[in-house]
Write a structure and sequence with these properties.
CATH topology of the largest domain: Rossmann fold
Number of domains: 2
Distance between the termini: 52 Å
Structural class: alpha/beta
Number of strands: 8
Strand content: 5-15%
Shape: globular
Order of helices and strands: EHHEHEEHEHEHEHHEHHHHHHH
Length: about 350
Amino acid sequence: MTGTVLVLAASPMGKGRLVDAASVLPVLAAVPPSVLAGTDTANVVELADPLEPQAVLTRLRAAAAAPGPLTLFVAGQLHLDRRQRLPHLALARTTPSTVRYTALPWHWFREELRLRAAGSTTMVLDLHADAEVWEWLRANVLDCGPGAAVYGRVAPPPAGRRGVAAPSYMKAVATILRSGERPEISRLHQAALTRLAGEGETADLVLSAAPAAPWLKEQDADPHTAISGAVQAGRHADADSLAARWERAAVVAHGRGSEEALHWAEVRADLAMFAGDAERSCRTWLAVAVVRLEAGQPVDAPAVEAAVDRAHHQWGRIDSAARARELGPALAELRARVPGRREGALDHVQQQLRQLEVSSRR
């Protein structure tokens, strides 16, 4: 079996750096890919101090869509954006005042991993928190989604004027794996904590969570697992049909604007993308955004921004100029209300619409 490994080590340049995240990369690079993944063979993608959140999202999305087990090794530091007070993983250009635009929103991990079958995703985290995030974690959970096994630690902000910290938990994990054996993930986690304790370092906030048990009986097959299997087999119509059944059931049971129904609508939007149907994916994301806004969700709510961003992305991939012109005004109207995190998004839509109108007259 072939697995996929995504290694992400990121921290800001300059005085805002709490941890030298990239220092773990040489140690991880010495571990055979198959050991990192716990599979016979593996594809490894490494992101060292990336600059742009959208570039990281592209790699994360591709890794999440890959068949087989997925393991993510993430080292870095967390900050809250000043507007929504949500955790973000700082990237190379991140400063306290630019978190919203230059850091990776943590909920993007949950969003991109949600279609993966339960038990197929493992996250190994070594994170350092600033004072605001550390306080936030007293009342909130760093949510990676119900289907992922999450292990690691979050270190508190440094006391006093200390130097830049090291990702010592991740280094301990990598050192253990360099032996060529990969213990079961919970045992690997405990061994890394033991190594830290032996070096006189506390584990701080320990992250240890197995994936949530399927909420269906086994004989009813978890629908996400069945859908994921159909997509990987190329049976896109079957995948959409199954998701549509669950969407209808959720609408009947909870209402069209419920999170249950919206979840399945979002699944179907992603399925259309996997099937190469950018138009249908765009239409579905537009509809999801409208329903969320009509339900009173704020324009900067993560789920609203994500829906409009994905509609925008899929709109740009529509092959038919006529279909793109048809959907463009609705997207522009939403972009005017939901500008998102990328500067100039509305201008981009309006410019593309003008080009489409000009080309239609030729």
